[in-house]
Amino acid sequence: MLGFKDNRLFLTLSFLMGLIVILSNYLVQFPVQIYNLENLLTYGAFSYPITFLITDLANRAYGKEKARIIVLIGFFIGIILTFFISTNFDDIISVRIAIGSATAFIIAQNFDVNIFDKLRNKSWFVAPLTSSVLGSVIDTFLFFSIAFYGTDIPWTTLALGDLFVKLTVAIAMLVPFRLLIYKIKDIGKIKIKNFNY
Predict the structure, then answer these.
(1) CB-based contact 148:27 (threshold 8 Å)
(2) Where is 78: in which H helix or E strand?
(3) Which of 83, 131, 130 lies closest to 111 in space, CA to CA?
(4) CATH classification of the domain holding 44
(5) Does residue 195 lie in a domain region?
(6) Count of other CB atoms within 10 angstroms of residue 29
(7) For the chain, how many structural domains are there in total?
(8) Could you tell me if 39 and 158 are in contact, meaning their C-beta atoms sit under 8 angstroms apart?
């Protein structure tokens, strides 16, 4: 049974996951219009990598089974609201974005959970960095090919630009991951104490 602090973190991570998915699905529709990056990058590339941070924190706090539950909760919050709020069903690209997002998210996040779990006992940065990088590659390829393949949208260059930003953000996310795992260790101590009772 989850304690109060434990439960609060679980709910917070689940809510944040859904929020970031919704935000990213909205922002991916807008190319970056500065420095001639409109054919290389969308704004969704800056927010989406945060989902891997959330998954990795959940995995470190609870293990892979509960991390998968947080991924599923985030999936349902994010994808359902994306379908009903930001999907224009008269526009096939908008529908393909929603389908691509759902498919890429669930596959890449579960892949991240498994890789993190296998590497969890290595140095603190190995599991989050490796799982986020590999998850980002899978997510990017799946999303952009499902959403934009066969259209006049330059999806391969957008995918490469998106992947570059995701990998950069994945490296940057090591800083908050390192800072936040101390909070998670406190929750781990609470769980151990509760278990001993």
Answers:
(1) no
(2) helix 64-81
(3) 131
(4) 1.10.1760
(5) no
(6) 16
(7) 1
(8) yes
Position 192, amino acid: I
Is 197 among the domain residues? no
Task: For residues 27 and 31, give the distance between their C-alpha atoms in angstroms, rounded to a whole number.
Answer: 8
Per-residue pLDDT tens listing for the chain (197 residues): 455 556 788 888 888 888 888 888 778 777 788 877 776 777 888 888 888 999 999 898 888 999 999 999 888 887 777 777 666 667 777 788 878 888 998 999 999 999 999 998 998 899 999 999 999 999 999 998 998 888 888 888 888 888 998 899 889 989 988 888 877 765 544 343 333 32
Rounded distance, CA 106 to CA 139, Å? Answer: 9
In a domain, 194, yes or no: no
pTM of this structure? 0.80
Alpha-carbon span 125 to 128, nearest angstrom: 6
Token duo for residue 55: 């998954």
Q: Which domain holds residue 125?
A: 4-189
